[in-house]
Design a protein that fits this description.
Helix content is 27%, strand content 26%. It is α+β, with helices and mostly antiparallel strands. The strands form three sheets. Strands 1, 2, 3, 4, 5 and 6 form a six-stranded antiparallel β-sheet that branches. A four-stranded mixed β-sheet has the order 11-8-7-12. A two-stranded antiparallel sheet has the order 9-10. A hairpin with a 2-residue loop joins strand 3 and strand 4. The longest helix is centred in the last third of the chain and has 23 residues, at 204-226.
Length: 279
């Protein structure tokens, strides 16, 4: 009998179900055994709460893949996440989809112990937590800014530049001035500063060089898409600067004041728009 008052439960967020538990809950097709692995994603406090109040535990099924894609690590993509679990000393690459969550009975899960064969390192658990939170808390830019960003070709160009660099660049962070979303005329500029946050964990010198080169490419993209060389004037969005910045040097206050731009970013509006032309 579990003593819910004293938190007498073994399960924690980020733990994997055993093959036996997975079969019992019918979470994975028989042919996918060894390829798909359910992970507990409910918060520890919710897990330990009495089933009278919270009868279910949330899990998500991870699928084994050959290698991680840098564009799906560090919770960059709010819909898909790549993680590195551990099976002994070996890495196991997993792909998680935000839509593949399930709820299972808390009381029934207590009949099983967590897997001791497959584990999630602390760093990967933190990434999982951030990714789960980002599903409900992520950036939505002003409609007019998004319209200009898409129609000028900036979005496609930035995706083409940054997508191959996912293993080194953790995030593109936007600082938009004059961000209000109403009463903006076509001649009113948005002014933007971009920060490219690069990873220092594995090869910081290479990551820094990659971020510097990407920053230069982005400056050129904005000049090509939004700068009128004949009249020496900016249109639609003016890029003030693009800064490479190490993940170890950005302060908490800075991170809270910036907006993360995702490669798969969708705006507040979804209808198609016509291309913009210089006026």
């Amino acid at each position: 009998m579990v003593d819910w008052e004293r938190g007498g439960i073994l399960w924690r967020q980020g733990q994997f179900l055993t093959e036996k538990a997975t079969e019992s809950f019918e979470l994975v097709a028989s042919g996918d055994t060894g390829l798909k692995f359910p992970i507990v994603i409910s918060h520890d406090c919710d897990i330990s709460n009495s089933p009278d109040c919270e009868p279910n535990i949330e899990i998500i099924v991870g699928t084994r893949i050959e290698a991680v894609d840098g564009n799906c690590t560090h919770s960059k993509n709010p819909r898909k996440l790549h993680l590195l679990a551990k099976q002994g000393d070996a890495d196991v690459c997993l792909e998680l989809w935000a839509t593949d969550k399930r709820a299972i009975s808390k009381l029934e899960l207590l009949a099983f112990k967590p897997s001791n064969e497959l584990t999630l390192p602390t760093k990967e658990l933190l990434t999982l937590q951030r990714w789960l939170a980002a599903r409900y808390y992520r950036t939505a830019f002003p409609d007019e800014f998004d319209r200009r960003f898409n129609q000028t070709g900036l979005q496609k160009a930035l995706i083409k530049t940054l997508k191959p660099l996912g293993h080194h660049i953790i995030a593109a962070l936007f600082d938009i001035e004059n961000e209000e979303n109403v009463g903006r005329k076509i001649e009113d500029l948005y002014t933007l500063t971009i920060y490219l946050l690069y990873d220092t964990a594995s090869d910081p010198l290479v990551a820094e060089r990659v971020a510097q080169e990407a920053a230069q490419s982005i400056l050129e993209i904005f000049e090509r898409c939004c700068y009128d060389t004949e009249n020496s004037t900016w249109h639609y969005i003016e890029l003030l600067d693009c800064h490479p910045i190490a993940d170890t040097t950005m302060t908490y206050a800075e991170s809270q004041s910036l907006k993360k731009w995702n490669i798969d970013h969708l705006s507040l509006r979804s209808e198609e728009e016509q291309p913009m032309l210089f006026i």
